[in-house]
Design goal:
By secondary structure, the chain is mostly helical. The protein has a single domain, classed as Transmembrane di-heme cytochromes, Chain C (Fumarate Reductase Cytochrome B subunit, Up-down Bundle), CATH 1.20.950. Strands 1-2 form a two-stranded antiparallel ribbon. The protein starts with 10 loop residues before the first strand and ends with a strand.
């Protein structure tokens, strides 16, 4: 009889992601999808609507509302994820995404494995290359949030305390980038960078699932992936 927990391919299931981690991942995923679609419309409002009858033209208010809701979900998910990276009772993984020399060397080895098809060492949570990619994507998302709030605050009454808080937290980015036009340009450019990053991330996970047969895609759904049994 086959040993319990080991597949016919001599693999065993390993628990790698708890429910909170998976929930935050999918919350960020769907929030980003909403933001990308609505953000593209806001940047190019005549792409789908904007011509013809009035009901086809007056849609910007609703789109901006959906964009704002998506941003709020993403804000909250990123803040919780950041907190758990340092204080999680299950797995504090902040060091897995930082570019330490050992992680950079490991990332290079993982990238080589994609070309040589020599399987890299088993990493229970994220491999070094995924960790660096996650760090880059999260930094881009933070830049998106900062530039987005800086653009959003101009539509608020300046007497609101909420507007004053946003000014306090994001006015510096307008100075760094050189004005509102460059803030808008950076926010728009991040959309395409995020699309490229998401496509790269999904492609890599699918490829690893097919080539290494470790269940990387299943891990973000059910929490388990396979480890080879010696």
């Amino acid at each position: 009889m086959a040993r319990q927990g080991v597949s016919p391919q001599k693999k065993r299931l390993v628990y790698v992601r708890n429910f909170t981690n998976r929930l935050l991942h999918w919350t960020m995923f769907f929030a980003v999808m909403v933001l990308l679609v609505t953000g593209y419309y806001i940047g190019h409002p005549t792409a789908v609507y904007g011509q013809g009858e009035p009901y086809q033209a007056i849609t910007m208010a609703n789109i901006r509302f959906y964009h704002f809701i998506g941003a709020m979900f993403l804000d909250i998910a990123i803040m919780i994820r950041f907190y758990l990276a340092f204080f999680s009772l299950y797995h504090r993984d902040w060091f897995e995404v930082l570019p330490f020399p050992s992680r950079i060397i490991g990332a290079i080895q993982v990238v080589k494995s994609y070309f040589t098809f020599i399987k890299p060492p088993f990493y229970r949570h994220v491999d070094p290359f995924d960790g660096l990619l996650f760090l880059a994507l999260h930094l881009f998302m933070v830049l998106q949030l900062l530039t987005g709030f800086q653009l959003y605050v101009h539509a608020l009454g300046q007497e609101y305390w909420w507007a004053q808080v946003i000014h306090l937290g994001t006015d510096w980015i307008r100075v760094v980038l050189g004005g509102d036009q460059y803030v808008r340009l950076a926010h728009h450019m991040m959309l395409w960078i995020m699309i490229a990053g998401i496509i790269t991330h999904v492609y890599i996970q699918v490829a690893k699932t097919i080539i290494w047969q470790d269940g990387h895609i299943a891990a973000i759904v059910g929490g388990y992936k396979y480890q080879d049994v010696e």
